[in-house]
């Protein structure tokens, strides 16, 4: 009995030593974990490889090609919208250098003009043209004391017109018109026959005009037009070769 008690007492120091060593072991393990470097698995990173200069140049070239293609399509659409109208109406004013008599000096005439064009087949149309010219003739000294009589003439012509240039902003055409004109040369003479002071007699004669309308487009339906032209007449059975121009506006309508 006494031996058993002694054996029990002997176990107390061993238990106390175990209790003392356990926290020390835990502290040592935690210190070792802190000193041991932790290795983490590297994460994959996606990196964009820089493009070579040739690749960048190719990308830019393709982008420029797409921009040019879109611009070309837009211009073609504007041209299509502009020149597919069937009808044109135009009007304005003008100028003509005219000889009022075979022995008289040339004079300046101001004018108005109006016309209509029907495009029958694509760029080919038929034009009807009307003009009025007004000016003051300068006669030589005469016994009738008529020195600066006013004169006028009117033309009524028609013929083909062909458009040769069709651009986004510009168009160039040509026409050849024939018809007749009427000249009033005695309206400013106070009843005096115009032939007595060197003017042509009042008459209706053949007219021929060749012109080149040049349009600057303000939009698909409107344009400003300048038309240099040549006008031939034969007052007094003599050929008059007259040069001038018309200027005005054009309105297109009746899209086909």
Explained architecture:
- Helix content is 25%, strand content 45%.
- With 256 residues, the protein is of the alpha+beta class.
- It has a single domain (69-255), classed as Porin (Beta Barrel), CATH 2.40.160.20.
- Strands 1, 2, 3, 4, 5, 6, 7, 8 and 9 form a 9-stranded antiparallel sheet that branches.
- The protein is elongated, with a radius of gyration of 50 Å.
- Residues 1-7 have low confidence and may be disordered.
The count of β-strands is 9
Figure out the total of helices.
Answer: 2
How many whole angstroms does the radius of gyration measure?
Answer: 50 Å
User: What percent of the residues sit in helical stretches (DSSP H or I)?
Assistant: 25-40%
SSE pattern, N- to C-terminal: HHEEEEEEEEE
CATH T-level topology: Porin
CATH class: Mainly Beta
Look at the structure and give the mean pLDDT: 85
Characterize the overall form: elongated
Strand content: 35-45%
Number of domains: 1
Mind summarizing the main beta sheet? 9 strands, antiparallel
Oligomer: single chain
CATH architecture: Beta Barrel
């Amino acid at each position: 009995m006494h031996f058993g008690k002694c054996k029990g007492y002997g176990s107390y120091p061993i238990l106390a030593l175990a209790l003392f060593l356990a926290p020390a072991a835990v502290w040592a393990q935690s210190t070792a974990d802190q000193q041991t470097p932790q290795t983490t698995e590297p994460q994959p990173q996606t990196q964009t490889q820089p493009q070579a200069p040739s690749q960048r140049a190719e990308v830019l070239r393709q982008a420029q090609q797409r921009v040019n293609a879109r611009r070309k399509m837009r211009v073609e659409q504007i041209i299509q919208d502009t020149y597919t109208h069937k009808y044109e109406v135009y009007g304005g004013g003008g100028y003509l250098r005219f000889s009022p008599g075979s022995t008289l000096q040339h004079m300046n005439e101001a004018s108005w003009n109006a016309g209509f064009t029907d495009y029958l087949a694509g760029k080919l149309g038929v034009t009807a043209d009307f003009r009025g010219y007004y000016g003051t003739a300068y006669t030589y000294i005469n016994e009738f004391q008529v020195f600066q009589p006013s004169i006028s003439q009117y033309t009524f012509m028609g013929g083909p017109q062909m458009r040769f240039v069709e651009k986004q902003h510009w168009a160039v055409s040509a026409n050849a018109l024939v018809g007749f004109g009427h000249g009033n040369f005695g309206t400013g003479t106070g009843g005096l026959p115009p032939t007595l002071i060197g003017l042509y007699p009042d008459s209706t004669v053949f007219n021929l005009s060749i012109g080149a309308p040049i349009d600057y487009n303000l939009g698909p339906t409107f344009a400003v037009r300048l038309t240099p032209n040549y006008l031939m007449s034969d007052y007094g059975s003599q050929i008059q070769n007259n040069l001038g121009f018309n200027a005005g506006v054009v309105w297109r309508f009746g899209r086909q």
